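Deviations from the work plan: none for this task. Representative record:
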Amino acid sequence: MEKEETRKELKVSAIENGTVIDHIPSNSVFQVVKILNLDEFDNQIFLGTNLDSYKYGKKGIIKVSNRFFKADEINKIALVAPTATLIVIKNFSVVEKKKVEIPDGVEKIVKCFNPNCITNNEPIRTRFTVIDKDELRLKCHYCEKITAKDNISFL
Amino acid sequence: MEKEETRKELKVSAIENGTVIDHIPSNSVFQVVKILNLDEFDNQIFLGTNLDSYKYGKKGIIKVSNRFFKADEINKIALVAPTATLIVIKNFSVVEKKKVEIPDGVEKIVKCFNPNCITNNEPIRTRFTVIDKDELRLKCHYCEKITAKDNISFL
């Protein structure tokens, strides 16, 4: 198994067990923290942002000790960090690596594009079905209007 | 001058030039990020939280490359991170070290304790004068009621 320490220059400390979220767009790192409620964890968390990346120019990385995420938890970040790689670490070694995937539904993090939607006028959490994962089209659970990719704004 | 690398086990990468904010209570680290607008920076930022600290049990640390803060900017964090130490780094060395200080005024981050205050009923930023820095008593700029230490809640 690939050792985590040998992967390029390790500017953000290696963790013994846990999850690494790599290749996060730099301007989305703290949104990822918020989406995954990482500010409420007791585990050690290491984070670096605006790090050099050959592939993406600038990137962010988050390492969460002793925490392993289910697919439906981690895929929430796919909208803000579509390039993210999820790496499971055990005993300082990489045991699994995969890309995040756009989920079937999105809650809370995206604003409904329809100004008349109840979610823009009452304190109700937004909720969407992803009706097109390639073109990123979200159908609002309440008003049923489509929020298209170019109109996606994050709460 | 003290070299940054020799200070205990360096779990969060040393920076060449910039500012280190150390001894942040672990549950305030991401509030500090928000207060200082660090999510909008282009500079490299390294962060670690729930790190062991002999003095404080658990702590967080943030390192911001190539950024130096004025006293009035950094003292905004004093309410959420009263134990924080500010360390200025140049050429990998510590050139200045000081504690944060409670500022004379606080904006935006604290909620007014008075439910009838205009700031709790209209989209107006909160604003307080700190009338007692030891007992942490905040006087609202609008309704003039006092929000005392035990009633301080963060927005």
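Chain A has two helices and nine strands.
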